[in-house]
Design brief:
Layout lengths: L5 H10 L10 E5 L3 H13 L3 E3 L2 E6 L2 E10 L4 E3 L1 H7 L3 H23 L11 E5 L7 H11 L5 E8 L2 H9 L6 E7 L19 H17 L1
Parallel strand pairs: 1-2, 1-6, 6-7, 7-8
Antiparallel strand pairs: 3-4, 4-5
Helix pairs in contact: 1-2, 2-7
Length: about 220
């Protein structure tokens, strides 16, 4: 175990990002649900505003935990063609999965933002935060979604990442001003949860409560 819980992971991760503290154009975006808790602590420590980058894993038919790809808010998607072929996932099944997750993204956008727009990313230093990366599919979709808005700099920040996911994320660089920051890349790597003492399944209410708290603190500042 490396982290007591996601809040502890966020506080530790923030120490590796201190060069971005008080960045005038800085913005922290958490990948909900779990990544929102980590991002909250990163944003607090760096004294930066926080919002969300909503992406969804595309789970294999009958094996929802096995990622065959991911899709982002703007419809940007990453597909693991090798896994799709090895499992024999049909085009029709893939379309059905994408449609279901697109609906879930829309639900979360409405629920978490309550109709408010996501802050502009254009020309800003954007830090994408999750609680960990096993395959890297979710984060790669988030990178694509963020890069489409032309930020000045894009930083991927995760407490723990698998070696293959780290390599994929580094290779996914959308432009030169891009970096991947992680605290640990253990091998062998089995799951993100094994590096946490508390890795409970976060609820929508937890994310909502954190967003309300983050907005209060930003308003106070």
């Amino acid at each position: 175990m490396y982290f007591h819980d996601r809040h502890d992971a966020g506080r530790q991760l923030a120490k590796a990002l201190t060069r971005y503290r008080d960045q005038p154009d800085g913005l922290v975006l958490g990948l909900p649900r779990g990544g929102a808790l980590v991002a909250y602590e990163v944003a607090r420590a760096l004294r930066l505003p926080m919002d969300l980058m909503i992406v969804r894993k595309l789970g294999a038919p009958g094996h929802a935990e096995l990622a065959i790809g991911a899709i982002g808010e703007g419809g940007q998607s990453i597909l693991n063609q090798d896994v799709i072929k090895s499992l024999g996932v049909t085009e029709a099944a893939l379309r059905q999965i994408v449609a279901a997750e697109t609906t879930e993204i829309a639900r979360r956008v409405q629920l978490y933002r309550q109709g408010a727009p996501r802050p502009s990313l254009t020309g800003r230093t954007v830090i994408l935060v999750d609680d960990g990366c096993a395959t890297g599919a979710d984060m790669r979709a988030a990178v694509l979604a963020a890069a489409a808005h032309k930020p000045k700099r894009l930083v991927v920040a995760v407490p723990v990442v698998s070696g293959p996911a780290h390599n994929l994320l580094v290779q996914s660089a959308p432009f030169a001003a891009y970096e991947v920051v992680s605290l640990a890349a253990p091998s062998p790597f089995y799951s993100v949860g094994q590096y946490y003492g508390d890795f409970h399944q976060c609820s929508d209410q937890e994310v909502l409560d954190l967003m309300i708290e983050a907005r209060k603190e930003q308003h106070h500042d």
